[in-house]
């Protein structure tokens, strides 16, 4: 089976972002933004819903083995094309938000990236592998003129933008990948 093609990925992403920008999505994001903690299972559900909407007859795999990838957060099979997704929702108001990039937990973004990279490196390039970040609704970067302590040990004292930079540096260090293709999506809450 071949990997997802560009138009399939674009259709999925458009369906997901449209869902999150709907009135229903705005209510969920607004509710979650007030919580002192975060969780990602809601995002798995939203992604599964978006895939169902975008693709008739798609097969969706959540937290299970997907074509040799153990405990993948979300696997999609659409018309014989495959996509493997690891997800990160980072509500930047959370005190643990930065640790989702490189913190001490095994469920950080670096570990997710390495899991997908190792799978692809093993010669299985028939699956489009993506690490999808959604952040917000608060801002990504530190205040103008402020500085961050840019070390993993000082992770609690840096902004999300600098944590993202450290994430890319860690990926380059561990994998020798020089060009990390980076797109992130901010979850916006409409102000009334």
What does this structure look like?
- There is one protein chain.
- With 192 residues, the protein is α/β, with parallel strands linked by helices.
- It is built from six helices and five strands; from the N terminus they run αααβββααβαβ.
- α1 (6-21) packs across α3 and α5 (109-121) packs parallel to α6.
- It has a domain at 6-97 and 109-139 and 181-186: Trna Endonuclease, Chain: A, domain 1, CATH 3.40.1350.
Comma- or semicolon-separated keywords:
5 strands, alpha/beta, Trna Endonuclease, Chain: A, domain 1
Topology summary:
Blueprint lengths: L5 H16 L1 H11 L7 H14 L4 E8 L2 E10 L2 E10 L8 H4 L6 H13 L6 E8 L24 H16 L9 E2 L6
Parallel strand pairs: 3-4, 4-5
Antiparallel strand pairs: 1-2, 2-3
Integer-rounded radius of gyration = 17 Å
Assembly category: single chain
Q: Give helix % range.
A: 25-40%
Please trace the helix and strand order, writing H or E for each element. HHHEEEHHEHE
Label the structural class: alpha/beta
Q: Residue ranges: pLDDT <50 for 5 or more in a row?
A: none
- If strands are numbered along the chain, what order do they take across the biggest sheet? 1-2-3-4-5
- What is the CATH C level class of the domain at 6-97 and 109-139 and 181-186, in words? Alpha Beta
Put simply, the count of helices is 6
Largest sheet: 5 strands, mixed
Query: How many strands appear in the DSSP assignment?
Result: 5
Based on Cα principal axes, name the global outline: globular
- Percent strand equals 15-25%
**CATH fold-level label of the domain at 6-97 and 109-139 and 181-186:** Trna Endonuclease, Chain: A, domain 1
Q: Architecture of the domain at 6-97 and 109-139 and 181-186 in CATH?
A: 3-Layer(aba) Sandwich
Mean pLDDT: 77
Ends apart, CA distance between termini: 47 Å
């Amino acid at each position: 089976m071949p990997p997802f093609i560009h138009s399939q990925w674009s259709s999925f992403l458009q369906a997901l972002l449209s869902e999150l920008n709907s009135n229903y999505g705005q209510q969920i994001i607004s509710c979650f933004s007030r919580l002192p903690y975060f969780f990602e299972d809601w995002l798995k559900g939203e992604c599964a819903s978006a895939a169902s909407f975008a693709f008739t007859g798609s097969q969706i795999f959540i937290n299970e083995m997907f074509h040799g990838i153990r405990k993948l957060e979300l696997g999609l099979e659409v018309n014989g094309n495959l996509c493997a997704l690891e997800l990160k929702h980072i509500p930047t108001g959370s005190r643990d938000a930065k640790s989702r990039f490189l913190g001490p937990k095994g469920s950080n973004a670096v570990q997710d990236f390495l899991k997908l990279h190792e799978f692809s490196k093993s010669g299985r390039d028939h699956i489009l592998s993506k690490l999808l970040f959604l952040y917000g609704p608060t801002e990504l970067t530190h205040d103008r003129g402020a500085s961050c302590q840019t070390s993993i040990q000082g992770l609690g004292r840096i902004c999300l933008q600098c944590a993202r930079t450290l994430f890319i540096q860690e990926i380059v260090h561990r994998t020798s990948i020089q060009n990390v293709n980076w797109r992130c999506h901010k979850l916006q809450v409409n102000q009334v």
